[in-house]
Design brief:
It is a single chain. With 187 residues, the chain is an all-alpha fold. It has two domains: 1-34; 44-172, Cytochrome c-like domain (Cytochrome Bc1 Complex, Chain D, domain 2). It has helices at 2-31, 44-61, 73-86, 88-91, 115-118, 121-130, 146-158, 166-172. Helix 3 (73-86) packs across helix 7 and helix 6 (121-130) crosses helix 7 (146-158).
């Protein structure tokens, strides 16, 4: 019984602190004081919080995905074509800048030349398929098949190993004209 007399005040203080914290958070949210404008960058804390949450969520969600052991040359070309059709406007490529309107997104979409160092194949697949909330990164699961998404992953993995001018050369050669889906219009 004596331990209860010692623990009870701590529990009361903890419960009151939790209630005040929840009320404070609700008051902060309801006040509208946080500036949600995309023209203002996130605070360092907000960026850290959302980025770390995203990294850990992607890793957890992708655990059950089976990644192919290797990619074929055809998948690489198909991945280039899918990337050109769906990704380059926001993420750019070696020798290709992002579209100007992308500068209005917050957070800004990353260039993906080293993304395979941050995410595994299955994690990249998950991100492309499901998108990332509150970043402008859409889910492509209704637009692209799993095979097409794996092709994008093949491109993301291989592109840093290719000469930097490869993307521009393939684009100028209109390499995707013979691609079965015929996805690309002239650049």
């Amino acid at each position: 019984m004596r331990w209860w007399k010692l623990v009870k005040p701590s529990l009361i203080v903890g419960a009151v602190s939790l209630a005040l914290g929840v009320l404070g958070a609700v008051a902060y949210i309801e006040s509208g004081v946080y500036n949600v404008a995309a023209s203002k960058p996130h605070t360092s804390f907000t960026f850290w919080l959302t980025h770390e949450t995203m990294i850990h969520s992607v890793r957890r969600q992708a655990r059950s995905i089976e990644a192919p052991a290797r990619f074929s040359g055809d998948q690489l070309v198909a991945g280039f074509c899918e990337y050109e059709a769906h990704c380059v406007a926001c993420h750019g490529a070696a020798g290709v800048g992002r579209q100007q309107w992308v500068s209005g997104l917050e957070p800004s979409p990353p260039y993906l030349l080293d993304i395979h160092q941050q995410f595994s194949r299955k994690e990249l697949f998950w991100v492309v398929k499901n998108g990332i909330k509150m970043t402008g990164m859409p889910s492509w699961k209704n637009e692209m098949s799993d095979q097409e998404i794996w092709s994008v992953v093949a491109w993301l993995e291989a592109s840093p190993k290719l000469p930097p001018q490869t993307y521009v050369r393939w684009r100028n050669e209109r390499s995707c004209r013979s691609y079965p889906k015929g996805l690309l219009a002239a650049p």
